[in-house]
């Protein structure tokens, strides 16, 4: 769970426990938009869960890909976008998905950019 999601869950917990008497007070205390807290209290899901069905890789496969990038980076051989796409395509083919990942140019990925990796 990322830190934003943990913050939202803490605000929900504290509001439900009666620590804060209003959604506005709980949202303000945690630095969240009131509408975010209100939506979650009404059953809205986080964006990662909401869009999970649109992802071609499972969360475990994404984690494997990130770990591979980090290992390659640790070997002082960060993978290019082309190598990363090829690895993602190999993972997809294991799922029976033969549609390749779209090309986005030729750059090198590093440990600093792994978090922004979006497939």
UniProtKB/TrEMBL annotation:
<protein>
    <recommendedName>
        <fullName>HTH psq-type domain-containing protein</fullName>
    </recommendedName>
</protein>
<keyword id="KW-0539">Nucleus</keyword>
<feature type="domain" description="HTH psq-type">
    <location>
        <begin position="5"/>
        <end position="46"/>
    </location>
</feature>
<feature type="region of interest" description="Disordered">
    <location>
        <begin position="93"/>
        <end position="119"/>
    </location>
</feature>
<dbReference type="Pfam" id="PF05225">
    <property type="entry name" value="HTH_psq"/>
</dbReference>
<keyword id="KW-0238">DNA-binding</keyword>
<dbReference type="GO" id="GO:0003677">
    <property type="term" value="F:DNA binding"/>
</dbReference>
<feature type="compositionally biased region" description="Polar residues">
    <location>
        <begin position="101"/>
        <end position="119"/>
    </location>
</feature>
<dbReference type="InterPro" id="IPR006600">
    <property type="entry name" value="HTH_CenpB_DNA-bd_dom"/>
</dbReference>
<dbReference type="InterPro" id="IPR007889">
    <property type="entry name" value="HTH_Psq"/>
</dbReference>
<dbReference type="Pfam" id="PF03221">
    <property type="entry name" value="HTH_Tnp_Tc5"/>
</dbReference>
<dbReference type="InterPro" id="IPR009057">
    <property type="entry name" value="Homeodomain-like_sf"/>
</dbReference>
<feature type="domain" description="HTH CENPB-type">
    <location>
        <begin position="58"/>
        <end position="105"/>
    </location>
</feature>
């Amino acid at each position: 769970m990322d830190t934003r999601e943990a913050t939202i869950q803490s605000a929900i917990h504290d509001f439900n426990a009666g620590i804060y008497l209003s959604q506005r007070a709980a949202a303000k205390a945690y630095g969240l938009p009131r509408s975010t807290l209100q939506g979650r209290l009404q059953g809205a899901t986080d964006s990662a869960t909401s869009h999970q069905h649109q992802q071609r890789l499972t969360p475990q496969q994404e984690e494997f890909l990130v770990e591979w990038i980090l290992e390659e980076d640790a070997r002082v051989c960060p993978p290019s976008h082309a190598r990363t796409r090829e690895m993602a395509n190999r993972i997809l083919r294991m799922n029976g998905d033969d549609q390749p990942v779209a090309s986005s140019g030729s750059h090198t990925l590093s440990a600093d950019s792994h978090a922004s990796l979006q497939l």
